[in-house]
């Protein structure tokens, strides 16, 4: 007996296949920025080659934004970097620390003011002590530790999560969450609270390894829906 499937099933199967292929092949944003110390050229690199983004002083701090773009702080100007060039986002004091937040954004702590920065500009998140620890969470948000308190930070503000001992290590989880190591206890942090994972060596090093890019997960979802729709 021949089984009959409508076009949605076939499309769903194709989408699911593409999503799985993307996961196996790696992150959908498989690219990098390479800075040549001899020429000063900043190059946008993909598996197929590279192209010049701009000239920039060697040693300029650069971070990725999680969407195939990046940011650099050169001579007091925050630059948004992409495969087609760069744009000036605004002025920030030289030496301002900043981290990638994902979804095309970063967080920058200039003095005692935390900013959420995108290609189109920046917003004031709130006041934090200079030197506060902060990390991106991969979804455009982040986490910051200030005077023993852990906060969830977004483009529009921040919220108190819990206390966290000074010197605790913090790393973004890549999916909107984070992990912390407090006196040998591993914690999983979310925007609404935390849970204890277990105990490890107090000097253990936390490293962010990321998660599949959101668009790939979306393809898997669409493929599953298509496969469920059949006669």
Approximate helicity band:
10-25%
CATH topology assignment of the domain at 28-131: Thrombin, subunit H
Through-space gap between termini: 14 Å
Nearest-integer average pLDDT? 83
Compute the number of helices.
2
Concise structural overview:
The protein has 2 helices and 19 strands.
Can you describe what's shown?
The protein has 231 residues and is mainly β. It has a domain at 28-131: Thrombin, subunit H, CATH 2.40.10. The chain has helices at 7-25, 214-228; strands at residues 31-35, 41-46, 49-55, 62-64, 70-74, 77-82, 85-91, 98-102, 105-110, 113-118, 121-127, 133-136, 142-146, 149-153, 158-163, 169-172, 178-182, 185-190, 193-199. It has a four-stranded antiparallel sheet with strand order 4-5-6-7, with no helix packed on it. Strands 8-9-10-11 form a four-stranded antiparallel sheet, with no helix packed on it. Strands 12-13-14-15 form a four-stranded antiparallel sheet, with no helix packed on it. A hairpin with a 5-residue loop joins strand 16 and strand 17. Helix 1 (7-25) packs antiparallel against helix 2 (214-228). The longest helix has 19 residues, at 7-25. The two termini are 14 Å apart. Residues 8-27 and 212-217 have low confidence and may be disordered.
């Amino acid at each position: 007996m021949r089984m009959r499937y409508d076009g949605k099933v076939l499309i769903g199967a194709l989408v699911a296949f593409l999503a799985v292929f993307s996961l196996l092949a790696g992150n959908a944003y498989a690219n990098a920025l390479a800075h040549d110390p001899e020429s000063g050229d900043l190059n946008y690199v993909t598996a197929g080659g590279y192209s010049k983004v701009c000239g920039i002083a060697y040693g300029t701090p650069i971070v990725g934004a999680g969407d195939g773009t990046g940011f650099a702080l050169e001579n007091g100007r925050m630059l948004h970097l992409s495969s087609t060039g760069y744009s000036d986002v605004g002025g920030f004091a030289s030496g301002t620390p900043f981290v990638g937040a994902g979804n095309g954004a970063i967080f920058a702590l200039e003095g005692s003011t935390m900013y959420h920065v995108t290609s189109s500009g920046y917003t004031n998140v709130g006041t934090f002590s200079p030197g506060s620890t902060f990390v991106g969470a991969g979804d455009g948000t982040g986490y910051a530790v200030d005077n023993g308190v852990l906060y969830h930070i977004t483009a529009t503000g921040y919220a108190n999560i819990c206390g966290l001992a000074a010197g605790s290590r913090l790393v973004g989880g890549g999916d909107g969450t984070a992990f912390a190591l407090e006196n040998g206890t591993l914690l999983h942090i979310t925007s609404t609270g935390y849970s204890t994972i277990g105990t490890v060596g107090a000097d253990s090093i936390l490293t962010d390894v990321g998660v599949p890019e959101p668009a790939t997960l979306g393809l898997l979802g669409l493929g599953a829906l298509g496969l469920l729709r059949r006669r």
